[in-house]
Amino acid sequence: KPRNFPPGPKWLPMVGSLPYLKKLSRKLGSQHRALTEMSKQFKTNVLGLKLGGEVMISVQDYETIKEILTCEEYDQRPNNFFIRLRTMGTCKGVTCAEGKLWAEQRSFVVRHLRNIGLGKEIMDLKIQDEIRNLFKIIDERVEVQIAKLLPFAIINILWSMVAGKRIESATFEQNQLLNIINKRTKAFDMSGGVLAQQPWLRHIIPERSGYNLIKQLNKELKEFLTQAIDEHHASWTEHNQEDFIYSFITEMKKMNGPETNFTDEQLLIVCLDLFVGGFTTTSSTLDFFFLMMVLYPDVQTKIQKKLDETFEENYQIEFTDRHKLPYVDAVIKEVQRYRTILPVIGPRRTIKQTNLSGYTIPKDTTILLNLQPTYMSEEIWGDPQNFRPERFLDESGELIAHPQFLPFGLGKRKCLGDAFARGCLFIFTTEFLRRYEIRPLDVNNLPSSEPLPGLVASPKPYFARFTKRRK
Ligand code: HEM
């Protein structure tokens, strides 16, 4: 081990501490629980690991996580096989880009997503359109597995902002692309798994290592995104600026030259980043929200009462209405804390040797930020094991900001789709609860709220009864 490296399990030849982490993850049901448990065993908030060939630390406490999220030395992503494969063999896009490329492209993406309406009224209208489509489907069913319906609605809102149109699919519940993205979400964890730590294993176990899955996803995504980009090139005029791809092509035409980062390849990977970063995160959060409504009918009734008092029946709810309903915001926040979809965030990489909590962290160390102990800390929340939205409200019912609550991260790599996600969360939850009573199929056999782990955690599949409140 490097000198003054954080404590952690032994490093075995070739595999490092991987067998130990895997065994514990299997026993406890998820990687983040194993990391939390190990940090207790070794009495440290900064845990030192080596997974296969990758030197790694996992950080468990809020203060150190905040230090990492707000310090430039930790702003970059690991440069391993999984990350390169994820970005189709390039270091482009936003999520995995570095240095000047990342700063330039991130700022462009944020500015132009805002220009085409992210977080504004136009986004609300697109959300309302998709909700109406879902209502038509749900009204015809008695028992609903909402997890099968949400992803397509979310991706259509996102795609209509990025590419100006919905994705047509005969049977959207079987949409091939979405299915593969979902599989990818479950096949990996934030560390990138085997493909990051022992990439040579892809030659021996291409299926089990997830290699074939990502190759197939890359192929399908490339075909899909290239077709959209080509269509935009063909129909581009300087007046066509209503979606993100047109804005990017306009910039390409302005910045034409050998030095420019505004290329078709860059556009493809940015679209990939928005696609894979945006839809499983938002739809899994909504899925957890509806599950909590099934499990906590009192909370559901309280929201419905507030909605009925605040809005006329035919009024279409907008994102700006959230200020009128702090209780709804508090419930959404409590869902994100209690059943966080990203218990571990990152991954990050040290760009030089650094000092962290008295330890020496070598250059190019991978960092995983485990937020679960913060979200389940008795010191911070008092009763973290209870689902209690009121913890986000003060005595007069106004929202309280908890600095330790970081669903969208913090600092320069903070989520760039948070306005989109928060808009979807608010409008979907309020419009759905205005229209439906959401109840369990069998009160004596309630669905479990135990998450299914993965890159993004989600509820285990469950059905609920959606009954119209007004005929
Ligand atoms: C509930 C939904 C979402 C959650 C909980 C979430 C959470 C996060 C978090 C915690 C990060 C920071 C990772 C880090 O610090 O290393 C992040 C980054 C990112 N998110 Fe989100 N996100 C959500 C929705 C979205 C949406 C809708 C989009 C796209 C429209 C998106 C695109 C991205 C991108 C591109 C990054 C990488 C930013 C960078 O590296 O500069 N996310 N997200």
From TrEMBL:
Keyword Oxidoreductase: yes
Binding site for heme: 415
GO-annotated biological processes: organic acid metabolic process; xenobiotic metabolic process
InterPro entries the record matches: Cyt_P450, Cyt_P450_CS, Cyt_P450_E_grp-I, Cyt_P450_sf, Cytochrome_P450_fam2
GO molecular function: heme binding; iron ion binding; oxidoreductase activity, acting on paired donors, with incorporation or reduction of molecular oxygen, reduced flavin or flavoprotein as one donor, and incorporation of one atom of oxygen; steroid hydroxylase activity
Protein name, per record: Cytochrome P450
Cofactor(s) needed: heme
Domain of life: Eukaryota
Keyword Signal belongs to the record: yes
PANTHER family per the UniProt record, alphabetical: CYTOCHROME P450 15A1, CYTOCHROME P450 508A4-RELATED
SUPFAM superfamilies: Cytochrome P450
Family under the similarity heading: Belongs to the cytochrome P450 family.
A single Gene Ontology CC term: cytoplasm
